[in-house]
Amino acid sequence: VGNSCVLTCPPKTNITTVTWKISPKVGGPCILGYRADQNKTDRTNCSDSMNWKFRPDQDPALEIWQVGIDHEGNYTCEVVATEGNFHKTYHLTVLVPPRLTMYCDDHGNPVCKATAGKPAAQILWVLESNSTPKEEGHDNGTVTVLSTFTAYSTNVTNTTCIVSHPAGNQSMTIAC
Question: Which ranges constitute the DSSP H helices of 11-105?
């Protein structure tokens, strides 16, 4: 999320047409088209955050700026050239790193919270704990995970939680 993304088409010479057919999970379909004989591009129902990376006659790649969850979906490039028709489909999944916070609850137990990640984060504790994480799903597809540290021993002073996520791992330490 937040980065740019470039999706490439099969590189061919003597291109007649190039069409990007985009079916996002949210919202209606979008089509970007190029006709070589008229050197003309067309766009139907596409947001300003996506366009040809360069010139479709030289490189028919699609670029998406500031990728968001709403960009998730299927992206198919269709190239018609003198050598034939070629297709390439992408299934775009957007990773959202969770926001990590840690605090002490009313009983003095450390709580680790990974907010609004996609997919849901995994929370682990450096010291063994019998904690059961709780998950809360959000309308935009992100998930908040909350884990309260329950120590087997009362001698614990500093507690570290580790949040494991495909967009990157994080850790935080607290003394309650």
Answer: none
Query: Between β-strands 40-44 and 110-117, what pairing exists: parallel, antiparallel or unpaired?
Result: unpaired
**Residue 55 confidence (pLDDT) above 90:** no
Task: Write the DSSP symbol of residue 97.
Answer: P
- Closest-CA residue to 97 (of 84, 114, 80, 74): 114
pLDDT at 57: 79
The residue type found at 27 is: G
Task: Look up the pTM and report it.
Answer: 0.77
Q: Are 28 and 104 in contact (CB under 8 A)?
A: no
b/e per residue, 26-43, with b = 16+ CB within 10 A? eeeebebbbbeeeeeeee
Closest CA to 62 of 70, 71, 51: 51
Q: Tell me phi and psi for residue 70, to 5 degrees.
A: -70, -10
Reduced to 3 DSSP states, what percent helix, strand and coil does the chain have, rounded to the nearest 5? 0, 55, 45
Interatomic CA distance for residues 173 and 145, integer angstroms: 17
Which helix H or strand E contains 161, and what residues bound it?
strand 158-164
Domains, the chain, ordered by start: 5-92 (2.60.40.10), 99-174 (2.60.40.10)
